[in-house]
Batch of 2 targets.
Target 1
Amino acid sequence: NAGVTQTPKFQVLKTGQSMTLQCAQDMNHNSMYWYRQDPGMGLRLIYYSASEGTTDKGEVPNGYNVSRLNKREFSLRLESAAPSQTSVYFCASSVSADLPRYGYTFGSGTRLTVV
Amino acid sequence: EDQVTQSPEALRLQEGESSSLNCSYTVSGLRGLFWYRQDPGKGPEFLFTLYSAGEEKEKERLKATLTKKESFLHITAPKPEDSATYLCAVRGSGYALNFGKGTSLLVTP
């Protein structure tokens, strides 16, 4: 089992460029999440999808959009990248947002630098 | 607003020197407290879920405990391979987990 797969692993963008971070899970999980991790800030939730067809804002949604393409895939889009979006982005999934008994399964992350 | 505070920020232990990591939390209606391990350059890896005060979970040299205000991750006779950042997270009334900033553990031979 691959678990949660994120692409790309590394990316450098110029200010104002756009890009989409891809995430796919093969565990038949219902819920998916996007977090960013910055030094000294911990993991902060950007957006989540409790189930296919639904998305909701997290703690830091400004500058991002998401799409739950199907049950397996949840993408994160930066429309106009800013240096403040330099971070490590993690996608995660869980069986259910309502009962995360078994925790989240995280991908290996995308390291994004905006110059 | 849910809050999670982890201490210490960093901890250095000799191999075999037992210690504990602390996670203090404030949450409206705790629906789970979670411990994760994160190795450099990787995503967090799930360790434990605790739901109610008094609950304990164990895995190899790790033991997690929970009270109404805090959780402890006890590490017994650690080995160098236990070196990692340990993250604590809580689930309150919202859907997603709120994470602390983590404790960076280094175990030296």
Target 2
Amino acid sequence: TQLLEQSPQFLSIQEGENLTVYCNSSSVFSSLQWYRQEPGEGPVLLVTVVTGGEVKKLKRLTFQFGDARKDSSLHITAAQPGDTGLYLCADRMGAGNMLTFGGGTRLMVKP
Amino acid sequence: GAVVSQHPSRVICKSGTSVKIECRSLDFQATTMFWYRQFPKQSLMLMATSNEGSKATYEQGVEKDKFLINHASLTLSTLTVTSAHPEDSSFYICSARDGRGLYYEQYFGPGTRLTVT
């Protein structure tokens, strides 16, 4: 059974600061997806990464995929209160392409 | 594109009654939908996989007679919580897999907050 570990579990920072959160897998990812979930809402897909060493940018968010495809990081530059939420990494698994989620990193950006 | 809706967004019901939650893919057809449950400050836990025209596949520990899933069309799946109890109170989220996507991305509904009194 694949296990996804995210760190840190909680992060509280001031507006304007930079931060990095991590996702590590016990096995090689099929395709890693990052989601952000705001309170009372469903998760929103941010990015899908597939190739080892891949780097993708989404405005102030930078996603890196490890060369061995077992780890990933999400870096946010100049965080804003609107970045507050639960950040989840997930991998597809099985013939049904189900998603298995990490435990999430809960980010709070204070104005 | 890739919008998924859920209805209702919030529901309060009495213990012993049944509640139906609808999940719709609005701009794409979804042969597969998924139902998740999320407790406060926790991640999502997959309950079942719903396949259009066939029986749902339930994860271990999820009672199929309590959580009835019907995927009657390519755009609609329903979850019925039968004989609800207070411990069934939770945030229920559906997702739909977009087969058009290269990596079969899942798109999530906004969730349904169920409170059983």
